[in-house]
Amino acid sequence: MSPIALFVFFGLVLFLFCAFFGAYHWIANTIRGAATPTGTVILAAVPLILGSQLLLQAIVSDIQNLVGSPAAT
Question: Of 19, 29, 38, 44, which has the fewest beta carbons less than 10 angstroms from its beta carbon?
């Protein structure tokens, strides 16, 4: 298994976890009329940042692994 596949897999897992976890707690606390605690916001933001970085690294690694020279213009 290539590192690019691992970056994409774990990046998507973390990104989707953040999206669902953050949305659930945001909606639940909005319905209750309470502010979302800081720890919950950080717990949703850290996987978002890490997942985004892993997906970006997968794109960069994929571009660097292209075989051949640039197309002539």
Answer: 38
Residue 71 has pLDDT above 90, yes or no: no
Predicted TM-score of the model (pTM) = 0.78
Distance CA 66, CA 13 (A): 26
Beta carbons of 40 and 25 less than 8 angstroms apart? yes
Q: Assign 63 a pLDDT band (cuts: 50, 70, 90).
A: confident
